[in-house]
Specification:
Layout (H helix, E strand, L loop, with lengths): L6 H8 L6 E3 L2 E7 L3 H18 L4 E5 L2 E6 L9 H13 L1
Antiparallel strand pairs: 1-2, 2-4, 3-4
Helix pairs in contact: 2-3
Length: 93
């Protein structure tokens, strides 16, 4: 099981990410895409990253907006896995 991060560690790691915010035991970011098909294509790419990492975000799709939420359920909060996947997601944008 991944080790849950402290509040200080979470804040430090959030400083390395752009647009991700903490909401309770999750980090979250909304992406604005140019069209609905491009939003779906983005989600498919996120799915491949998530599957490879064995770590899956909650995904909310609303037309051209995609909101991703990351947490590590079995750790009961945020772990390095969440920040690693957030970084990978940002790299495909």
């Amino acid at each position: 099981m991944a080790t849950r991060l402290s509040d200080a560690e979470i804040e430090e790691r959030l400083g390395d990410l752009t647009g991700w915010t903490r909401q309770g035991n999750e980090i979250r970011k909304t992406f604005q895409l140019p069209s609905f098909p491009s939003a779906i294509a983005f989600v498919v790419n996120v799915a491949f990253l998530a599957e490879a990492a064995g770590h899956h975000p909650d995904i909310d799709i609303r037309w051209r907006k995609v909101t991703l939420s990351l947490t590590t359920h079995d750790a009961g909060g945020l772990t390095q896995k969440d920040f690693d996947l957030a970084t990978q997601i940002d790299e495909i944008m």
